[in-house]
Structure formats: structure tokens, C-alpha cells
Amino acid sequence: MLLEVEDLHVHYGKVEALKGVSLAVAEGEIVSLIGANGAGKTTVLRTISGLRRVTSGRIRFKDRDITHLPGHRRVGAGLCQVPEGRGIFPGMSVMENLEMGAYGRSSRSLADDFERAFALFPLLSERRKQQGGTLSGGEQQMLAIARALMARPQLVMMDEPSMGLAPLMVNQIFDIIAAIHEQGTTVLLVEQNAAQALTRADRAYVLETGKVAKTSDAATLLADDSVRAAYLGVDSTG
Amino acid sequence: MKGPQTGIVLIGVLLLCALAAMGASATTAFLLERVAYRPLRRRTTSRLAALISAIGASFFIQEVFALRYGRDILPFPRIMNKTVLFHIGSGEVRTDKVLVVLAAIVMMILLDRFVGTSRLGRGIRATAQDPEMAVLMGVNIDRVIVLTFILGGLMAGVAALLFGTFFEVTQYNIGFLLGIKAFTAAVLGGIGNLRGALIGGFALGLIESYGASIFGAQWKDVIAFVVLVLVLLVRPTGLLGEQLARSRI
Hints:
The complex is a heterodimer of chains A (238) and B (249). By secondary structure, chain A is an alpha/beta fold. Chain A has a single domain, classed as Rossmann fold. Chain A has ten helices and ten strands. In chain A, the strands form two sheets. In chain A, strands 6-7-8-3-9-10 form a six-stranded mixed beta sheet, with helices on both faces. In chain A, strands 2-1-4-5 form a four-stranded antiparallel beta sheet, with helices on one face. In chain A, helix 3 runs parallel beside helix 6. Chain A is globular. The N and C termini of chain A lie far apart (40 Å). In chain B, strand 2 and strand 3 form a beta hairpin. Chain B has two domains: 166 residues, no CATH class; 77 residues. By secondary structure, chain B is mainly alpha-helical. The chains are: A alpha/beta (238), B mainly alpha (249).
């Protein structure tokens, strides 16, 4: 397994946000994490990235225990996150945002990486000098994904990449995620858009109030009546 | 000391003084970050806590100097000859004034280039704009913050030397009002905007000087702080706009 999370407990003050989450992602997979608002999806990603302290439990990445590794060193280990809200640096240009993505790498030539980013996102190429804060939501999402890839991660975790985007753009983003996956990057995807998340993923976990309620291959969950009722807005009796 | 210097000797003396001042100031900044800021950062994200800690640290340092050197105004040795080069109207252009202006411009250009183009500069800007995102990019923000303090200390050291050379006096609390005015200049230009701070500093200086000649020198500080209050009321993002608060979408 590329990533293994074992019995993860995380607190916000006295509130227990994660009550023993276990999940695993194998190399080459797309795994989705779905669930309602407040189920703890974002907390799972933030904890794996090292932004939240673990109360108990273990996180292993490439067979190495990273539970207590400082967040900034997890990027170098091959783990990257595209956070909720995209996290574009508003006062930096598109180029500088991309350079930030490669911050942890030894500063050898980034030419190949820029080329790859602009091949994947031709739109960004036209906006190289533009400030990140002036891009549209969809452009920012593209930049956030391109920036994460600059670190050459083995695993990319994406938090709500479709949030706040127009339907056409949502499809485009999911196509890009599929393309990245095809190029050999493993993807852990957190989504409220459960229909898309389940269609595109190999496997999925359903998170409910800080616990994994269900896990299965994505096709099975897509056909599951209770999942359809709760997350796909399909009335199971109808 | 042999008295006012000129030529190569003067440059050497000034550089030595600058190095000593920068070293002392940067060391102080480094220690302050460890003692007065880092522990707070671990416990709270409140910016107010850091501000209060900064004021406390400032009083602490002032009182240490008051205990050691007393509370009176002390002379600052004359390093250079202050020859009048030429006149503009009734104003005289002296060597020390030229030095202050030139050194300030050179420092601002160097700092602007450094923060704008170096890897650490990018780390500093990323940490200022969005610290969590900086971590996700692999930035060791604790290291970036302490290096930023040291950088600030180096700049403050040069500034102190220029101030001393120009006014030739010093006192245990002479930096306090300067610090507050530096803050005013930064707010005026837009917090987080380096070029804004430069323009803010320049504008504040002009407003103070012209204000003093209109209302009288005793009103100088009042004018500076009226400007601060007005900026906060009318345009809280400063003249050039604030890069930090803008669009956290």
C-alpha cells in the first residue's frame, strides 16, 4: 500500500473530529472519500498532510511511519495536497505559484515541469504573468492542480476540486484528474459531488461523523440504495 | 576615535559600524523571535497576541538599556565630516544627508530584489499570504519566520547607524517612536506590500515635515498619528492595497 491510515483519532479542542478512521490507497488507484458536510473528510486530508496533530493512530506512506513528520517534509516524501478553496497565493503570479509547488525540490531546472504543466493546462500558459488572485475559480483550480504536480508527487490528495465551479468546468476538472492518474499519479479524492467521485474512482470510502461507515469498490457503492439516497439525491423507494 | 573621517577611511569605518550594528540588531531579532513570538505561535493564531508581545518586548529592551546607560540623551560620536555640498533654495545638501538618502534607496532596492526573486523571498511571501498553504508546498515556516526576523534585524541595524550619523544623539527609548512610525508607514502603504511601505514612509516623512512647518514642530507626532487614524478609517488596505487580506476566496 502507498498510503495506510490506521485508527486515526483527531480532536479540535475537546471535540473528537475523527473517531478511528482507517483507510488505504494502493499505488495507481483513484480512491474517493465521500460524505456529508462535517463528516471529517477535510480533517482526514489535513491530518495526512500534517496540518493537524494526531491524537492517536498511525499514518504510513511508502512503508514509512510519517505520523509525526513535520508537514513541510511530507511534500518531499511524495505526498501533495490540493486543498479546499485551492489556496492560490493571491499576490504571486501564475509562474511564481508554480515555482512554489517545486519549493521543496532541489532547484534543478524546472523547464520540463513547466512544459508538462502548460501542456496539461494550456490556459495557464497564456496567463503566466497574471496574479493568482485575479484568476477565475476554474483557472485557480487548474493552477492549484498544476502547482501540486510541480512537486512530482506519487500521491495527490484533492479536497473538493469541483466546489464552486460551473458544470462545464467541473467536467473538465474531472477529465484532468483522470489524465493525471493515467500519467501515473495516485489520487485520493474528497468530494461532495458523489456522482462524479464514484464514477471516476476505483474504490471509495463513505465517511459519517468521523468514522468510515462503508467501503467498497466504487461501482458497488454507486448501486447501493442507502448511498444513492444519502449522497446522490436518488430516492431509493422511487 | 581620531575625529571625522574622509575618503576610503570613512567608507571603511562606516562599513565596520554597519556590520557591528547589523550583527547586534540581527542577533536581538533572532533571540526575540525565539522568546517572544515562537512560543505564542504554538499556542494561538491570534495576531493581537503577537502585537502585544512585541510591545512588551520593546519595553523590556528599553528598560534594559535604561538600567545600563541611564535615561538621559547621550551623544553619538561624529563619524564623518558634514560638509555642505550645495544649496537648493534655502535648504542645504550635506554629505551625511546624501549618505542617508542613498543608503536607504540602495537598501530598499536590495530588499525588494531579494524578496521578489530569491527562493527564501518566495518562501517569505508564501508564508505571509497563506501559512498553511506554504506548509503544503514544503516550506518550513518556522525557519522562514526566524530568517525574516534576522533580515529585519539587519535592515534595522543599518537604519540605526544612519539615524545616529544624522542626528548624533541616542537615548534608551529612541527607537520606540521610530518603530511606531515605521508601522504607520507600513499601514499607509499597505501591510505586506514592500513597495507600499517605501512609498508610505516617504509620504509620512513629507506629511510630517510640511505639517510641522504649517502647524509648528510640536505637532509633528500628532500629525503622523492623525494620518494613521485617517488611513485606518478611510482606506484600511493602504495606498497600494494589501496583498495579504485581498481575496482569500
